Structure formats: structure tokens, C-alpha cells
Request: fold
Amino acid sequence: MSPKGTAVADGFSLFTDRSVVAMRVNGELRDLAWEVTDTDTVEPVTIDSEDGLSILRHSAAHVLAQAVQRVNPETKLGIGPPITDGFYYDFDTSEPFTPEDLKALEKEMQKIVKQGQRFVRRVVSDDDATAELANEPYKLELIGLKGGADAGSDNENVEVGGAELTVYDNVDPKTGEVMWSDLCRGPHLPNTKMIGNGWALMRSSGAYWRGSEANPMLQRVYGTAWPTKDELRAYQTRLEEAAKRDHRKLGVELDLFSFPDEIGSGLAVFHPKGGIIRHEIEDFMRRELLKNDYEVVNSPHITKGTLFETSQHLNWYKEGMFPAMHLDEVTDAEGNVTKQGQDYYLKPMNCPFHNLIFRSRARSYRELPLRLAEFGTVYRYEKSGTLSGLTRVRGLTQDDAHIYVTDEQVKDELKKQLEFVFATLRAYGLDDFYLELSTRDPEKSVGTEQQWADAEQTLREVGEESGLELVADPGGAAFYGPKISVQARDAIGRTWQLSTVQLDFNQPELFELEYAAADGTRKQPIMIHRALLGSIERFFAILLEHYAGAFPVWLAPEQVVGIPVAAEYGDYLDEIISRLRAEGVRARVDHSDDRMPKKIRTHTKLKVPFQLIAGEEDRAAGAVSFRFRDGTQLNGVPVDEAIARITAAIQSHEQVSTAWSE
RNA sequence: GCCCUGAUAGCUCAGUGGUAGAGCACUUCCAUGGUAAGGAAGGGGUCCCGGGUUCAAAUCCCGGUCGGGGCUCCA
Reply:
């Protein structure tokens, strides 16, 4: 502890650079108005730093709240923290916000920003705060939480996280009048003018108070804020780019899949072009499985409930399952049951079936590791509000595998699995990964502490040995065992949880699985669940967005389209195309009566990797001209060479968007 | 599941109490063309479904289905 120094200055005199919006004093974020002493360590916080952006966004949230209460003073305040790329503020209001309301609020916010109100920090006692905020029931609740054992989430800490309670007053710079106040830990920008014009309100939605379904729903307004208008524009452009590659939009444009209303929510049909992509994804996966010592199995989509009683799924996840079909019950004329019926369920998971396959006969240690793989279609009754395109559906096909190993084999097998995962994902064009280790949630787990500790340790070692970044996810494990998951970054930097490798010491026990060990005793195997692509539907969506619909040649639904310069050259192209088709290439000639530039436009929009154009010059030379997706071209390529290059590009899983360099 | 919001031609969308529209796509015909839209004509809609209000409903009200944005959830 250093002796208390003498107050010497505030941040305004220490930092004249106008991009400094706050400072760190002895590691703590402080307003520039904070008085520092000669023994303090002081660092500037600039607006474009991570802390600076959070402060900017948090201040913008305050301005939003002030605007809301100006428009409707009856509105009660929830919380208003900064978040990635922006901020939100929750309100309890009699009428939800309409888009017009948001426009009006933006205008009101602009006035507040222009006025340049100062953010002034004021320390208050719990009692004073309680009196001052008597009309703000949610804030009172937060004050009550402060200092409790469970101090609430980070977002709530933004309001009351400090050692002492503070209120920020928004003060009119001319009159000194307090325009508005909010309970807040701070720090804030010195004044609202510094929020500038790089912000916008985005949307509104409902959100449960303190994130619990049991609590009332508040109205949340989301906004975004950046140091400059240019950065705001860049952010908006980024959102537009992401929207352009939205798989739901591309799915319609490229005629890949649809969700007919007649079938029901979350249930997709794949059209021929989506179907062939899916076929290629699965076909490649199957070949890799067989090369890597998996056995391919198959199981039905429905089963009697007893199976899921054994597996405990009916106990733990019944709400997530489609309700039972009650079958085979017989009643007499009086309605008395004369024969008990049976409950049948659509399967939400494949593992119990694989356990039955394991158990179908005596197993020897010589068979282990036994790797059972299936593209198993499962049905889950996901809540209606959580469904989203192909990424969250009610009917999905998992590329599922269950691997049964001895205790000694666990580590080697996990290693092998991770390597297999990386190699496979790379073949689909995803190569930027990190790992996440999900560990025990003591509230929700079976098995002994020792089992968990050992398993988590093994997973951690394997993860660390992979050389990839390993992120902890404490409490994220399922109840039956820890898992390691592979997160992949896509072309625009978003991360997706793909593969999971999960240990399970519960099911082998529930199903009484055993094998004969070398010494003749019976032992229980350890089970590893592993999904490599996750669900095929979701993986399909991820690839579609990753490539923005411009798939590598092997996955492209149409690989080659021949475009004759005039109808006369159609026959010549037909010959070339039939040679490609004989090689298994998806190729056709566009014989429609559109003009050539129109055909080029059509197939460019459909993102066909190779357009083969032929006219007099090409025919005379026994050649074709390539046009690639980006508009580059390669003229007069001899036909044999063209075919060889196309088939090679398919073989190698290569992405081809531009002309090959010689 | 909860809050908000939407549904009009295959697609994108205009129309908002009084006979249903555009562009693209599709069909046919003309045009025979060298690198992102040649021309003309034509077909195509229980305006999501069911109730209600009204002389009259695609339009207003209620319920449902499906979509979208969030919250919660995600074995």
C-alpha cells in the first residue's frame, strides 16, 4: 500500500489529446474529472481502445435512456450496458417501441448529444440512492443486490459494480442544471458531445429482466456507436455483407432448399441443387470414415420409450422431444383398457441405438476402439422462438459416431479424433480453429468427482497438445461428461461451434455395456460421442455462408456450363460437355435463346465456377475459352487440357474463382 | 415458450375499405450474337388460413399457421 498522495491534477490537465476519453488510475477506469495524486499510476484511455469504445457505448446508452424518459417520463429503467459493437438499454414501458418511436428517439438523442451535457459522477449512500430512485423499481432491486454473495452478471455490475454506489448526473453545460440522472458505476465520456455522430439505434425487442424467463419482460432498444461516422458506415456495410451471404437468402436465390409451411416449423426440404451439395458433403465424409477405421451402422427414427428411459433422455430432456405416439392400446366396449399400449418416440439422439448395437453380442477388448458411425436423422422439439433457417431446426441429420474404448485407450483415441476432425474440416475449406473445453456443472452432472477430474484433465492435455488455442467453458458440459469442441472461423470472421468430442461415463453404465478384457474379466468401456460436422443441415448453412454461395468446384451444384457464342457452336460444346459428364463432372450446355452476354450474367449470378465459351476461333483450334466467377478469362485452352484442369480442380477440392495463372 | 414485427405472382416488392400492379423469372415468336440484361407478345394471384365488423375486406378486428429480430433455451 502506497501512502496516500496529494491531489495534483485531473485527467483534463494530464491529457490534452482529445481522443483521450478516460483514464486508468492504478488499474481502475476513471472519468477524466477524477483527481489523481502524485503517487498514482495513470494511463490514458483513448476512444478507439476497447475500454474507450465501451465507455462511448455506455454513454450513448445513457443518452438513449434520457431520451426515452423525456419522451415518456413514466418509463422505468432497467440496465444499459455496452456490448460488442454497441449498447442496449432495457425499459419497462406500457407501449412497446415501434420503428417510428426509434426514429423519434434518435432525434431526441441528437439534441442531447448536441447540447454537450456533462457526465458528472456523484457518490451516494445506499439510503440516499434508495430515496432518489424510489420511482425506479428495477434500480432499487439492483441496489439491493449490491454486496450480496451473488452480485449479478457483468452487465448488472455496470450499474452497481463498484465498491460504492454512484449516480451520474447529466448536467446542462450552460446553466449547470441537472437534466437527468442514472445509477451507474461509470466511467463516462466527459460530455455527450463526444458521442459524436457515429451512432444509430438498431432495433427493439423484448428481453427478460435479469435474463430470467421467470421475470417480467422489458423492452430492449439496441444501438451501435463508433468513434466516427466512417466507422459507423463501415460497420453497417459489414452487416450488409453478412446479410448478403445469409444462407436463407442464398438458399432461395440458388434454389437449394426450402421450408414449406405445409411441413411445419424447422423442417427443411433440399431441392436438387442443395441435394447434390449435401450428397457431396456426406459422400466425402463416408469415405473418410471408412478410411479411418469406423464401422458404418444404421438405426430407425422411432423407438419405444423404454429405450429413452434406459438412456435417461426422458428424464433429462423430455421437453426437448416430440411427444409420444401412444400405440397398440386395446379397449373394450366400455372403454376399459384390455391391452396396455406403448409409447413410441421420434429419436432425439442416436447414442442409445449404438449402445444396443454394442450390446448385441459379447465384445472383446480386441474389438476396441469400436467406432460406430451413422448419419442419423433426429428430431428435437426446439422451442418455436429458437428456430432459425438451417442452423436451428427440428429435424436434422447428425454425422454421429460413438466410440467405445478401454480406459487406457481414451487419450490416444481423443488425439486421433481431433486430428481426424481438423483434417476433415480442412478438406471442406475451413482451416481457422480454436478449441473450447466444457467442464462440469456441479448442479447438473452424474458420476464421481474423480471421474470428472480425470476426464477433464485428459481432455485438457489433448487440447493443449494440439497446439491450438484452448478456451475454458466452465460449467458448459452436459450432465454425463466433459467435452472438447472445435470452433471454426468463417470467411468473415464469425465463429461456429462445429465438432464436439465428448466423454460419457454414464451411458455405458446405464446400458450395462461390457467387454472381455485380456485377463478374462469383464470391464466397462468408456464411450466417446463425436459429431464432426455437427448437423449436416447446419454445416451446410455454415459452408454456404462461408463461401457466400460460391462453392469450391467439388461442391458446386453446377460445375461447368457451356456457352456457345452462337447457336452454331452448340454441337461443338455438346461434345466437350459430354466428355466432362463421362468423367462425372456436373456440366451442361446452355442452349437457351438468350444472347451470350445474358447467359454469362445468368450463370455468373448462379456462381457456376466454370463457364466454357466456344465460337469460331475456339472450334477451329480445338479449344475452349474459360470464364471464371470473377470475370477473368483464359482463351483458347486445348480441350484435353481444359478437361484435365477441371477434373483436377474437383479432385483437389480446390476453390476456383479466378483464372489459373500459368 | 415470451416480447415485437411481418405474410400480395416462382423471386423482390408497390398498393391500405369500392374490378389486383411493377421489375425479374417463366412460355411463345422474332433476332444469330465474342464476355454481366436484344425485341415483342403471352400465361400466371382463394392478396397465408379461419372467423368477425361492414352494403362492400387483400385492406379494419380476433384467432391460427409460417417467417424475421431479440430474450430464454440448445443433450
